[in-house]
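Aggregate trends can hide what the representation actually does to any particular protein. For completeness, the protein is quoted in full, as a sequence line and a line of C-alpha cells.
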Amino acid sequence: MKSNELWLIEQSRKGNIDAFEELIKDYKKIAYNIALKVLKNTEDAEDASQEALIKVYKSIKSFNMESTFKVWLYRIVVNTCIDLKRKKAINTFSIDESIDLGGVNEVQREIADNSGNPDELVEKNFNNKLVNDAINKLDDDFKTIIILRDIQGFSYGEISEILSCNLGTVKSRLNRARKNLKEILENELKFQY
C-alpha cells in the first residue's frame, strides 16, 4: 500500500471526509463497473456502488489492513450487489435486448458505434451479445468470478479476499465457471449455424 494511501486511510478513520474522497476517487469508477456487470442495470449499479462507498466510510475504522484497501473495498461492492440482488430479485438483461412494455410498445436500446466497417461491427456485436448472454446464464457464483478475473482482471489472491474464500476454491470455481461458459457458448453456436 502506498504511504499516501495509508495516510488517507488514517485521516478517514478520524472522520476527515476530504481525505476519504481523495482515498476513493480512483476506485469509484471500477466499483460502479463491477456493480453494473453484476446487476446489469445502471440505476441499481449506481445505487449499489454508492451504498458500498457509504458502507466503506462507515466501517473504515474496522479495516485491519490485512488486505489492500482496494480488495477490501471491492469485497464490500460485490457483497452489496449480491445483497441488493437478493432483496430485489433483480431480473438481469442484456443491453442488446429490447424492453417489452406490453402490447405493441417496445423500446430498443442501442449504443452508437461509428467506427469500423459494417461487417466487422455486426460480427463484433454478435460475439459480444453471445458472450454477454452466456455469462448471464451462469450461476451467480460463476458469473461473479468470471467478471472479477476475466473482465476486471483481479488476481487469484485478490479474488480470494474479495469473495472471502481460499485460493483453491477460487481456482476450482473459476475452472468450473469457464467450463460452464464454454459449454453454453458451444451449445449456442450449434443453434446459430
In short: The chain has a mean pLDDT of 82. The longest helix spans residues 167-192. The first strand starts at residue 98 and ends at 100. The chain has two domains: 1-92, 115-193.
